[in-house]
Design a protein that fits this description.
By secondary structure, the protein is α+β, with helices and mostly antiparallel strands. It folds into two domains: 2-91, no CATH class; 105-210, no CATH class. The chain is 26% helix and 30% strand. The relative contact order is 0.11.
Length: 250
């Protein structure tokens, strides 16, 4: 697991993840630093709604060292009760959603892991599905609907055919669906075999999005850049340990 660390108001803050998602981590640390200028975040009660995620700061003491760990809801257990210090899933979702908003060039409308999505039960195991965001009916409703792309019984459904569930459950149903959750009311997203294939706005104008292949290439590039940074940091640390002055970067 990778440890990311920052100093905020003279306190050490650490965040753990399995992937080198430094941009997402940097965004979280910057927000924590900004919020710390206005309120006390180091009290074991602080909760930050950061996009889709809810983040917590928990104090730890190890070997006489005090530091604070960023935690989030544990989606592998009971997110309403359980937390985890492995933020990999939270950071991946954050990156996906930020990328979707930026590439589509739209203004985001917040949707959290606790907000609900209306799901047609028959769509849960289907290959061709779509999502449509309408105005939220009530607080806690994301406005999103998840249904069959071609639904022969569309006019005959009864209430029992639908289910309202928190958006985090879409991780197990269709991970790519997590990508579009911050897109605004009116957005329609189409998925084939769990992969986003089309995206339009409320006026039926096509919105841009990155393909799976493009995301794979970008992820590989970011991984190599991170590994190069780690190797350079280790080399500087070794030079310092050997009593040599580290070479300045060109």
């Amino acid at each position: 697991m990778i440890t990311f660390e920052a100093k905020i108001r003279e306190q050490t803050v650490r965040l753990f993840a399995d992937l080198p998602l430094k941009n997402a981590v940097g965004a979280i640390m910057r927000v924590l630093a900004d919020v710390s200028q206005k309120t006390n975040i180091f009290n074991n009660k602080f909760v930050l709604n950061f996009g889709w995620n809810f983040l917590f700061l928990t104090e730890r003491n190890e070997n006489g060292e005090k530091f604070w760990v960023v935690e989030t809801a544990d989606f592998n257990k009971n997110p309403a009760r359980d937390r985890t210090d492995n933020l990999t899933t939270a950071l991946v979702v954050q990156n996906m959603q930020m990328e979707a908003v930026q590439v589509a060039k739209v203004k985001p409308e917040n949707c959290t892991s606790r907000d609900t999505v209306l799901v047609l039960k028959a769509a849960l195991e289907a290959n061709d599905v779509y999502m449509h965001r309408k105005d939220a009916a009530k607080d806690g409703d994301s406005g999103w609907y998840y249904g069959l792309l071609d639904d022969p019984d569309e006019e005959n459904h009864v209430l029992a055919d639908f289910e309202s569930m928190p958006t985090y459950k879409l991780i197990a149903v269709c991970p790519d669906a997590m990508r579009v959750l911050q897109l605004p009311v009116g957005t329609v997203a189409v998925f084939n075999d769990k992969t986003l294939t089309a995206l339009v706005d409320g006026d039926d104008n096509a919105l841009s999005f990155t393909t799976e292949e493009e995301r794979r290439r970008l992820g590989e590039k970011q991984r190599k850049e991170f590994e190069a940074e780690v190797a350079a940091a280790r080399a500087r640390a070794q030079e310092e340990a050997n009593g040599k002055k580290p070479e300045s970067a060109e």
